[in-house]
Amino acid sequence: MSGAIYVISWLLLAAIFIVAEIISLGLTTIWFAGGAIVAALAALAGASLVVQIVLFVAISVVLLISTRPLAHKFLDGKTEKTNVEALIGKKAVVTEEIHNLGGTGKATINGMEWTARSVEDSKIIPAGVSAQVAEIQGVKLILRYEGVADGESQETLQTNKEQVDDIQIV
User: How far apart are CA 170 and CA 160, in angstroms?
Assistant: First the structure.
């Protein structure tokens, strides 16, 4: 085949990879489009088919390994946690004693009441304390409580307990 056919073939392959990337938006095929363009340039320069294929594979792999992590960091770094993801790491007020083995426990965070469980099955978290949201499983907050936290005095615990009592009355 003549060199022009190889150039056209590589450019067509690059176009297919670009269209696939536009459709998927997964940063999976764009690297191969780069390799196909370099192979097309090699074909234009008169390189053999073996050299073109080696360049395609080598450039594609180098682009994939060197730029994909940077692209993911750049693109994923701008996503903000939304909805329940934003609650992880925040403090919730325990409104009903959390006892995993007894199947009890509720907590309030951002004005919403949730069913709550402890990270540790054997740990009972008393009502009126603040606990950190470790994760969310379905509609349950999984809370981490280390006893009286730094800066959380017995007065704070009593205030939280009073707030819990007010919530239960309303």
Answer: 16
User: Regarding predicted confidence, which is higher, 60 or 2?
Assistant: 60
The model's pLDDT over 68-92, given as tens digits with 9 standing for 90+, comes to 777 767 666 555 555 777 888 899 9
Q: What is the DSSP letter of 55?
A: H
Summarised one tens digit per residue, pLDDT across range 143-169 is 998 875 444 444 544 555 455 445 444
Q: Please report the pLDDT score of residue 168 as a whole number.
A: 47
Q: Residue written as tokens 């509720």?
A: 106
Give the pTM. 0.45
User: Hey, is 5 helix, strand or coil?
Assistant: helix
d(CA 63, CA 57): 10
Distance CA 134, CA 128 (A): 18
Q: H or E stretch including 98?
A: strand 91-99
Give DSSP secondary structure letters for 105-163.
EEEEETTEEEEEEESSTT-EE-TT-EEEEEEEETTEEEEE--SSPTT--HHHHHHHHHH
Name the residue with tokens 């402890």. Answer: 118
Tell me 89's DSSP state. T
Pairing of strands 112-118, 140-144: parallel
